[in-house]
Amino acid sequence: MTVTTTALDIDRLIDDPDTRIIVCCGSGGVGKTTTAAALALRAAERGRQTVVLTIDPARRLAQALGLRELGNQPRQVQIEGFEPKGELWAMMLDMRRTFDDMVRAHAGPERAEQLLANPFYQTISTSFSGTQEYMAMEKLGQLAATGEWDLIIVDTPPSRSALDFLDAPTRLSAALDGRMIRLLTAPAKAGGWGLRKVVTAGFSMFAKAVSTIIGGQLLADASAFMQAFDSMFGGFRERARKTAELLRSRGTSFLVVAAPEPDALREASYFVERLSDENMPLAGLVANRTHPVLADLSATAAMSAAEKVESSAPLATAVLRLHADRVALAARENRLLARFTKAHPEVPIVRVPALPSDVHDVGGLRDIGDRLAGDQDT
């Protein structure tokens, strides 16, 4: 199957001063965090003031950058022998701390302390559906608002969660807006009857979301939280709206990262379609960990040659059979990527050959960066 693809020029993307945000998304285990870090390192080396934000709790990014840990505020990366034209900063999202900071920014000092001490708040700030994705967007908005970096690279959760990343403002706003606020503020306004009404009509609606809080104190805590939160909800929602607009702006580009495997490419295809539906700016697909053929010898010819020298040259036989397996693997990957391209002919692709081992340091990240920007033939 021969399908013409458009090459994704990574250096052109990261060198473009109009590119201010790159969001890396894809299913789990495809090298998304490594791709984000390699892009950030390469961009800094080429003169961009770059910060990379990871939502990956595995801390692989910190390890690869030679840091013991990353916090909720950007930390400049200083590496021996690393003299970039720009700067490289890195951070890892702390969901609870980001939520706390947002409360302090939108509420007065007294009200903020009431909210932060509320047991209901302490639950939803870490476990409410959509909180992590919303706080990732909040942190992205904060980084963009400072103007300290001219390129922000975001490493998102695995692809279904990355879709939640797009939905987070709407979902969390809807959960904390309208009827729920009126329901939970009713007990304090209506006395005991209001409390009984909430227990009857509203308990099942939010009990699952706050399953770690039990007993009669739940409703009182929830009511107190909502009354305090109601006054700052407008700012909360407005920030979400602005960040959603930021994701749709000309300065933002989405990179979908996928391995040349059926499940990963199926997720990539789904995400490409969703980005198109949402009018999100897609830069292209990174086909990660591919296995290009290293010699112009067909699998059939390699196996035939292996049979001829099997008794006299065991090492040559092993190499020829290994090459035949590699040709078969490359052909399978080509078919899968051709199928993706046939479905999405407008999506540029760059293939990144697999490294012989996992990336653990800056040298490995540089190698990935070189491969991202290397031979673009697909």
Mean pLDDT: 80
Spans with pLDDT under 50 lasting ≥5 residues? Answer: 188-215
Total domain modules: 2
CATH class of the largest domain, please? Alpha Beta
Helix run count: 16
Q: What is the second-level CATH architecture of the largest domain?
A: 3-Layer(aba) Sandwich
Organism: Amycolatopsis rhizosphaerae
Domain ArsA/GET3 Anion-transporting ATPase-like: 19-292
Protein name: ArsA family ATPase
GO molecular function: ATP binding; ATP hydrolysis activity
Model description:
- One of its GO terms (molecular function) is ATP binding.
- Pfam families: ArsA_ATPase (PF02374).
- This is ArsA family ATPase.
- An eight-stranded mixed beta sheet has the order 3-4-2-5-1-6-7-8, sandwiched between helices.
- Strand 6, helix 13 and strand 7 form a beta-alpha-beta unit.
- The chain has 16 helices and eight strands.
- It has two domains: 1-54 and 56-92 and 248-291 and 334-378, Rossmann fold, CATH 3.40.50.300; 100-132 and 139-147 and 168-246, no CATH class.
- Residues 188-215 have low confidence and may be disordered.
- Helix 2 (32-45) packs across helix 16 (362-372), helix 5 (109-117) packs antiparallel against helix 11 (217-230) and helix 9 runs antiparallel to helix 11 (217-230).
- It is α/β, with parallel strands linked by helices and 378 residues long.
- It is elongated, with a radius of gyration of 25 Å.
